């Protein structure tokens, strides 16, 4: 079901179904953004603990830089997401009022101006509105992004080396000795 945004006295229907799924620029940018933010933000304490201090500092610095890079792209990401969500009702197969990213940019600008007083007139809140609507419309399921991201996370976790038989035995002996 769509979400109605009234901008400039006009009702815009935001829905992430077929037309949004076909917006490859939006999907590419969303994968980059979510992967960059969540991937950089996910620093397992035990994984960091295994690193020497210099390597730990380097990993943390790179992670912070990755988050900063993605946050700096939040306005473009929000506009692409808005554009994709408006395509079902307002794109070329809809009423034709949003035929380009430039049209979505003008709508985003007007939305931000109109909502500056209520605290939601910013790119983060626009991004959040779009992201919540994507979830409500099962956009991540429809496009397969949920499976792709899940498999990527499982691949990262499974890429850690598994202890060999001797290491497992040594660990088991240490545990037994420490219990006694």
Tags for this model:
2 strands; 180 residues; 10 helices
Task: Give your account of this protein's structure.
The protein has 180 residues and is mainly alpha-helical. The protein has helices at 18-21, 24-41, 45-49, 53-72, 74-90, 101-114, 123-136, 139-143, 145-158, 165-179; strands at 3-7, 10-14. A two-stranded antiparallel sheet has the order 1-2. β1 and β2 (10-14) form a beta hairpin. α5 (74-90) packs across α6 and α5 crosses α7 (123-136). The chain is globular and about 65 Å long. The N and C termini lie far apart (61 Å).
Topology:
Layout: E1 3-7, E2 10-14, H1 18-21, H2 24-41, H3 45-49, H4 53-72, H5 74-90, H6 101-114, H7 123-136, H8 139-143, H9 145-158, H10 165-179
Antiparallel strand pairs: 1-2
Helix pairs in contact: 2-4, 2-5, 5-6, 5-7
Class computed from helices, strands and strand pairing: mainly alpha
Give the overall pLDDT as a whole number. 84
Oligomer: single chain
| Share of helical residues | over 70%
Low-confidence spans: none
Strand content range: 5-15%
Number of helices: 10
Gyration radius from CA atoms, angstroms: 22 Å
SSE topology string: EEHHHHHHHHHH
Instruction: Please report the total strand number as a whole number.
Output: 2
Gist of the model:
The protein is mainly alpha-helical and about 180 residues long. It is about 70% helix and about 5% strand.
